Amino acid sequence: MKGEHLSLAFGGQKLYDDCSFNFEATDKVGIVGVNGAGKSTLIKVLLGFEQLDEGEITLPSMRVAYLPQEIRVDSNQDNVTVWDYIADGRPVDSLQGQLNEEYEKLAKYPESQAILERINRLQDLIDSYDIANFDYELMKIVERMGLADLIDAPMKQLSGGQKSKVAFAKVLFENAGLLMLDEPTNHLDASTKEFVANYLRNYKGMVLVISHDVPFLDTVTNKTLFLNKTTHKMHTYHGNYTAFRRQYAAEMAEQDKRVTEQEREIRRLREFVERARNAKRSNTALIKQGHVREKVLDKRLAELETREQEYKKVEISVSPSKQSGKTPLELQNVSFSYPGADPMYDKLSFQLTRGEKFLIVGENGIGKSTLLKLIVGQLYPHEGSIIFSQNTTLAYYAQELEILDVHRTVLENVRNYDFTDTDMRGILSNFLFTGDDVNKPVSVLSPGEKARVALCKILSERANLIVLDEPTNHFDPETQKIIGENFRDYDGTLIMVSHSPSFVEQIGITRMLILPSHEPGKPLVPVIKNYSRELLEYYYYLNSDLV
Questions:
Q1: Is residue 465 part of a domain?
Q2: How many CB atoms lie within 10 A of CB 176?
Q3: Using CA atoms, how far apart are residues 43 and 89, in angstroms rounded to an integer?
Q4: What's the CA gap between 303 and 301, in Å, rounded?
Q5: For the chain: N or C, fewer Cβ within 10 A?
Q6: In CATH, what number is assigned to the domain containing residue 380?
Q7: Does residue 169 lie in a domain region?
């Protein structure tokens, strides 16, 4: 794959300026850069969804598979089983039908070169799908991604995390020569992420991946394409993300040294030119030298390098407006199951103490998000009670950002009657929405921007009980750190689901509710344990049964 002299601008704002890159057929490339640098746009350009202003991209003759950041399953596929949905990644039956039709045409027109060419193309495509190992390859991916128990389930019954895993499994099963992945580890549990990382590292084709997951990038990639928002250039670094950061930091230190020296010389030249301009007319030698130095000054100013711009970071403040009771939340003998499905919870009981940081862990589809939805009232238990203390105020950050109304603007989504619109504009500016940005409909925002709106919405409510479902998805490592530091200092009560051990460690979790794997037909038997780093690592990395 090769890109030469790429240029692109939106509304007069430059994104790429004469950029080039060149990748080999088996490269695993991490695409990185600050928000707004054009990472997802580059994928869209490669896929033909966006057009360049100038330049050319040469793609090798290979099939391309694409995993977008936001997974959407068409409503007409709601009743399709997981097995059939993934199997459609290699549409062998459809292609075989087309091939049979072409042979029937060939029987009527045996001299047709066009028909023969179509037959050859179809046969090559079918062969590339490795029909002999079709079921074996599909089952291997299904089992290793923890989907074996769901192969007969209709897509409409899956959780958001399960749908993401199924969509990813389909992309892997396609066996394409080029994989393009946009934030692929969102919603993946630790064991699935480990399988996917190793699978991609050893993948026979090319992989282009946008991700904020540093350990994942370090495992998978051998090259890093850095999109520089300041210079609008692209530069390829050999090595994974950590190697890139090391090389980039050295380059920035060297650049800072060069720019400092350039600025020092420019100051000396300016002082000399100014002294020459103020010299007496009789001092012709100084005036003449001043003219010479002025030309040198103009040249040095034109050559002066631009320092990397320090972009504004998200600024958040998490503080409840009032204190809850000593027990802000209590579950008493809660039982729940989805219609037609196995029982999920049976007489689940626990209570939270004011100020506690409570983590829920378990594999995808085990019922973590379901439990949060029961707590916030989006689902209702069949038996038992969910009790809030009199002064408890609740805010909920949903995994799939469904708390947002995509048809309303940013400002309308976060509008809060405790604040004026002017106040809310000021709060939104801390989440990097300024000027006319606040009047954009949420539907046109990127997933990362939507996540910032959702976070702003719940924090502006100043609740004393915050429920977080995968709060680090869509955020870069620096923003994750800012969020973690603020929630660590939050003096309300926190209940959270997260697949990010580093983020969990930041928060200061006090206890963990562990949802272990269970036998079909039987409800979960959750376990509550005091938090420890060793227990967290034991669960996340060994993925063992902790009962």
A1: yes
A2: 21
A3: 20
A4: 5
A5: C
A6: 3.40.50.300
A7: no
- Give the model confidence (pLDDT) of 107-135 as tens digits: 888 888 888 888 888 888 888 777 778 88
- More confident site: 537 or 489: 489
Tell me, yes or no, whether 104 lies in a domain: no
Instruction: Decide which of 238, 255, 270 is a domain's last residue.
Output: 238
What is the band of 321 on the pLDDT scale with cuts at 50, 70, 90? confident
**Which residue, of 238, 257, 283, is where some domain finishes?**
238
| Mean residue pLDDT across the chain | 86
Q: Are 319 and 491 in contact (CB under 8 A)?
A: yes
| CA-wise closest residue to 371 among 496, 472, 458 | 496
What sign results for the dihedral spanned by CA atoms 145, 147, 149, 152? Answer: negative
Altogether, the residues listed in the chain come to a count of 547
CB-based contacts of 5, cutoff 8 Å, min separation 6: 18, 19, 20, 54, 55, 56
Count of structural domains, the chain: 2
494 within some domain: yes
- Report whether 166 contacts 187 (CB < 8 A): no
Question: Residues 362-381, buried b or exposed e (16+ Cβ, 10 A)?
Answer: bbbbbbbbbbbbbbbeeeeb
Structure tokens at 485: 């530091």
C-beta of residue 399 within 8 angstroms of C-beta of residue 160: yes
Task: Please tell me the distance from the alpha carbon of residue 110 to that of residue 118, in angstroms, as a whole number.
Answer: 13
Question: pLDDT category, 312, cuts 50, 70, 90?
Answer: low
CA angle at residue 221 from 216 to 225, to 5 degrees? Answer: 110
317 confidence band (pLDDT: 50, 70, 90): confident
Nearest to 374 by CA among 342, 333, 341: 333
**Can you read off the two tokens belonging to residue 239?**
């090595």
Range of the domain at 12: 1-62+179-238
SS3 call for 111: coil
Give the residues across from 223 on adjacent strands.
Answer: 29, 238
Torsion, CA 66, CA 71, CA 75, CA 78, rounded to 10: 100
CA 469 – CA 497 distance, rounded (Å):
5
